[in-house]
Design goal:
By secondary structure, this protein is α+β, with helices and mostly antiparallel strands. It has a domain of 141 residues: Nucleic acid-binding proteins (OB fold (Dihydrolipoamide Acetyltransferase, E2P)). The chain has 6 helices and 5 strands. A 5-stranded mixed barrel has the order 1-2-3-5-4. Strand 2 and strand 3 form a beta hairpin. Helix 3 crosses helix 6.
């Protein structure tokens, strides 16, 4: 089979045999894959720092249908997150993003929007530094579960929106004495979640690459 070349993010690495690494990486066109990087743990490895956590790379690999692991032939670094390693909070968030992505993404299923999410959040982290760490983490958390199918899109009827607006402009003392229909609780939860979503969107300086999400 021919060697494939794909843009990817490195998620995790594991020691394998003597001097080798098992690499979990998320490609733009073939989803999350795992492969063996021969001699990657040696001091003079040809892979260098390209296999560091969440590095954006151009990876070359050979995939055989009979084998679970692909063979990684080369890895060219496109964008490193090394500049964030000196900040403790940023390091924690990078670990969090990598671990969540490793657990949420199913094997060999392309997810272009998730790939662009990773690119945009990491770009925002590099641009904002320590000041934007938890903003980026919150934004990533919301969209990671949304794009993975765990959080559905909430559609709020016009009547529910009117009700939510009325409640927002009514003193708490007046709300306690009113009788509410059974659907009110569900309507308010949906309206609240939508407000949280809008707040998260406003808090992140959304990169242009995310505008199509």
């Amino acid at each position: 089979m021919p060697v494939r070349v794909s843009e990817a993010f490195i998620l995790r690495t594991y020691p394998f045999q003597e001097g080798d690494l098992v690499v979990s990486f998320f490609t733009r066109d073939h989803g999350r894959l795992r492969g063996v990087a021969k001699r990657a743990r040696r001091l003079k490895s040809a892979f260098g720092s390209s296999l560091e956590r969440l590095s954006q790379v151009q990876v070359s690999y050979l995939q055989k249908e009979t084998l679970e692991l692909v063979r990684i032939d080369g890895c060219d670094l496109v964008q490193s997150q090394f500049g964030l390693s000196s900040d403790f909070d940023a390091g924690v968030v990078l670990d969090y993003i990598a671990e969540v992505s490793e657990q949420l993404l199913p094997p060999a299923e392309p997810n272009e929007r998730y790939f662009r999410l990773l690119a945009a959040v990491l770009a925002d982290l590099r641009a904002s530094g320590a000041s934007g760490v938890w903003r980026a983490a919150t934004y990533f958390s919301y969209w990671a579960v949304r794009l993975s199918g765990f959080l559905p899109e909430f559609r709020i009827s016009e009547q529910s929106q009117i009700l939510a607006a009325e409640i927002a402009n009514t003193p708490v003392s007046s709300l306690a004495s009113r009788s509410w229909p059974k659907s009110t609780g569900s309507d308010l939860r949906k309206a609240l979640i939508r407000e949280i979503e809008l707040h998260i969107e406003r808090r992140l300086l959304t990169a242009p690459v995310l505008e199509a999400l």
